[in-house]
Design goal:
The complex is a heterodimer of chains A (112) and B (112). Chain A has strands spanning 5-7, 10-13, 19-24, 31-37, 44-50, 53-57, 65-68, 75-79, 88-95, 102-103, 107-111. By secondary structure, chain A is mostly beta strands. In chain A, strands 2, 4, 5, 6, 9, 10 and 11 form a 7-stranded mixed β-sheet that branches. In chain A, strands 1-3-8-7 form a 4-stranded antiparallel β-sheet, with no helix packed on it. In chain A, a hairpin with a 6-residue loop joins strand 9 and strand 10. In chain B, strands 2, 4, 5, 9, 10 and 11 form a 6-stranded mixed β-sheet that branches. In chain B, strands 1-3-8-7-6 form a 5-stranded antiparallel β-sheet, with no helix packed on it. In chain B, 38% of the residues are buried. Classes of the chains: A mainly beta (112), B mainly beta (112). Chains A and B meet through strand 4, strand 5, strand 9 and strand 10 of A and strand 4, strand 5 and strand 10 of B.
Chain lengths: 112, 112
């Protein structure tokens, strides 16, 4: 069964460093998303990506964040200069059009 | 500004009984609603969805009810099983491809 895969499963980084979180969405899906969940809190929308451009973004998705689909399969989230409060689980999701979004297993980002 | 609200942080139910999880929304433009199940350190797993043209959708032990006039939906699990113990998130979106907005989640505990 097709699934969304995310790497790495856990990333530890020093404050101020850049990180890139990687995702391989389901191959025939058209919409790609990044969400995050800070420990004990709700799943928060960051950004959606369609037709090689950002279609929606939340207030959380400020200038330190960027997304890219560098080839036909990968979808990445870059955080330029990490802060302690960026520590969270980051989830990638993809969706065909209508219908549910399917999520990856997440990357746990720890900023120290 | 919570567009999707799950006002009960937790619910405890005995095995074999019915679990009813509730969700309210404020955005009248939402027309597609979903329930996801989430275990710790895993991504949300899609359970069941309903579009605004329906008021009920059933899949095995899971039934989602939608009351558009009250802007309320509920997930019924019958019969509840210990393996159903997880965090359940309600989510909603406005139209095809747009972001899913999540509630804060309800932790369901099913005891045997």
């Amino acid at each position: 069964e097709p699934e969304v895969t995310q790497t790495p499963s856990h990333q530890v980084t020093q404050m101020g460093q850049e990180v890139i979180l990687r995702c391989v969405p389901i191959s025939n899906h058209l919409y790609f998303y990044w969400y995050r969940q800070i420990l004990g809190q709700k799943v928060e929308f960051l950004v959606s990506f369609y037709n090689n451009e950002i279609s929606e973004k939340s207030e959380i998705f400020d200038d330190q964040f960027s997304v890219e689909r560098p080839d036909g399969s990968n979808f990445t989230l870059k955080i330029r200069s990490t802060k302690l409060e960026d520590s969270a689980m980051y989830f990638c999701a993809s969706r065909q059009d209508r219908g549910p979004a399917f999520f990856g297993q997440g990357t746990r980002l720890t900023v120290v | 500004d919570q567009q999707v609200k799950q006002n009960s942080p937790s619910l405890s139910v005995q095995e074999g009984r019915i679990s009813i999880l509730n969700c309210d929304y404020t955005n009248s433009m939402f027309d597609y609603f979903l329930w996801y199940k989430k275990y710790p350190a895993e991504g949300p797993t899609f359970l069941i969805s309903i579009s605004s043209i329906k008021d009920k959708n059933e899949d095995g032990r899971f039934t989602v009810f939608l009351n558009k006039s009250a802007k309320h939906l509920s997930l019924h699990i019958v019969p509840s099983q210990p393996g159903d113990s997880a965090v359940y998130f309600c989510a909603a979106s406005e139209q095809a491809g747009t972001a899913l907005i999540f509630g804060k989640g309800t932790t369901l505990s099913v005891s045997s």
